[in-house]
Amino acid sequence: MSEFWEENFISKKEMWGFEPSKSTILTKDFFVKKSVKNILIPGIGYGRNAQVFIENGITVTGIEISKTAIDLAYKNYGADMEIHHGSVTDMPFDTHRYDGIFCYALIHLLDKKERSKLIRDCYNQLKTNGYMVFTAISKNAPNYGKGNRIKKDCYEFHSGAKLFYYDQESVKTEFNDFGLFEYEEVNENQPMYLIKCKKSA
């Protein structure tokens, strides 16, 4: 995953632009409503989905594997956030417990073992009554079933990018034990599930 990200970073930056995603806006509204004060963003990238949280008084900490992306995040959005340099598969990077965690368009790039570890690691870094929100590509995406089939619901459409496509069953299977209470499909540049979990006492 890291080599694919590094090799395609500039083109992806140009494709994604600098405006926050629809899911980010929805999550920001949710976090503000729930009085979330600090969040962790695994896979923060170059920061386009971080600024809207900062603008609403939420302290942001990130994790990012690409040094290029980290440098751009600081250049474009300032140094008001801490970003750990490394892979999300090596979490945790600190012992802090967060009010919220937001993980955008990342989990579907991981294999089953890595997905399970990421969900568990994020849950473990939540405060009691904290919330974590994930976005994951849906089977309704136009590229589902195309490319090289790796295993059930996992396809390599572009070389080096193996995507696991979620449906309602797999959302429940992977998140039910971690406080899943709501999920909905949101149309970004492709259909994504917006998945919400709460860490109860």
Structural commentary:
The protein is an alpha/beta fold and 201 residues long. The strands form 2 sheets. A 7-stranded mixed β-sheet has the order 3-2-1-4-5-10-9, with helices on both faces. A 3-stranded antiparallel β-sheet has the order 6-7-8, with no helix packed on it. It is globular, with a radius of gyration of 16 Å. The N terminus is likely disordered.
Percent range of helical residues: 25-40%
Distance from N terminus to C terminus (CA atoms, Å) equals: 35 Å
Query: What is the overall number of helices?
Result: 6
* Rounded radius of gyration (Å): 16 Å
Q: What form results from the Cα inertia axes?
A: globular
Order of helices and strands: HHEHEHEEHEEEEHEE
**Spans with pLDDT under 50 lasting ≥5 residues?**
1-15
Strand content: 25-35%
Q: What's the mean pLDDT score?
A: 90
Q: Record the strand order, biggest sheet.
A: 3-2-1-4-5-10-9
Number of strands: 10
Please describe the biggest sheet, giving its number of strands, its sense, and whether it closes into a barrel.
7 strands, mixed
What structural category do the secondary elements indicate? Answer: alpha/beta
